[in-house]
Amino acid sequence: MSRPSIVGPEVPVEPFPFELQGEVVRGFGRGSKELGIPTANLPEEAVNSICSELETGVYYGWAQVLNKEVRPMVMSLGWNPYYKNEKRSAEIHIIHNFESDFYGSELKVVVTGYIRPEKDYDSLDALVEDIRTDIEVAKNSLNRPGYEEIKHLPFFA
Ligand code: ADP
Ligand code: MG
């Protein structure tokens, strides 16, 4: 199925840009890293702040580890199985090859837009293919002046 290569308006629109931050915690060990798509998890308190604002699904924006470079990211916002799906979880894949893991490090995220709803997949391949597409969509969508300028928010300084 073909998907648009760019999504969202020319500039972020309410409730975006949406700021999130916290120390990276261990996730569910679903093997994201083995798929080549590690996803950093934020603590419960950080995720609660988006609860009322955003529906579940896949989002794009910017992320920064330890006040270093600001990089593109895709975020999956879903229901947290640990809490019988009463709480949400935010899993953030930063579009960069890191030398090592950064559990425990401060992660700042600005969510700038929505890509698509969550989906159930028949196969792992189909899931990975969709995430690969999300990554391209995120890069293209962030490559616009209205999104580039978010990188320079005081939040990331
Ligand atoms: P977990 O189940 O603990 O979230 P993952 O397999 O999803 O395990 O790996 C996530 C961890 O990988 C992150 O917490 C982070 O320390 C590390 N990591 C390395 N590269 C990235 C990246 N590009 N994006 C997100 N996390 C990354
Ligand atoms: Mg993960």
Structural features:
20% helix, 3 helices, single chain, binds adenosine-5'-diphosphate, alpha+beta, binds magnesium ion, 157 residues, globular
Spell the H/E element sequence.
EEHEEEEHH
Helical proportion? Answer: 10-25%
Tell how many strands the DSSP assignment holds.
6
Instruction: Give the termini distance in whole angstroms.
Output: 40 Å
**Anisotropy-based shape:** globular
Specify the biggest β-sheet. Answer: 6 strands, antiparallel
Question: If you average the pLDDT, what whole number results?
Answer: 92
Radius of gyration: 15 Å
Structural class: alpha+beta
Number of helices: 3
Explain the overall architecture:
This is Riboflavin kinase. With 157 residues, the protein is an alpha+beta fold. It has helices at 44-51, 124-142, 145-148; strands at 18-23, 40-41, 57-65, 70-79, 88-94, 106-116. It has a six-stranded antiparallel β-sheet with strand order 1-6-3-4-5-2, sandwiched between helices. It is globular. The chain starts with 17 loop residues before the first strand and ends in a 9-residue tail after the last helix. Bound molecules: adenosine-5'-diphosphate and magnesium ion.
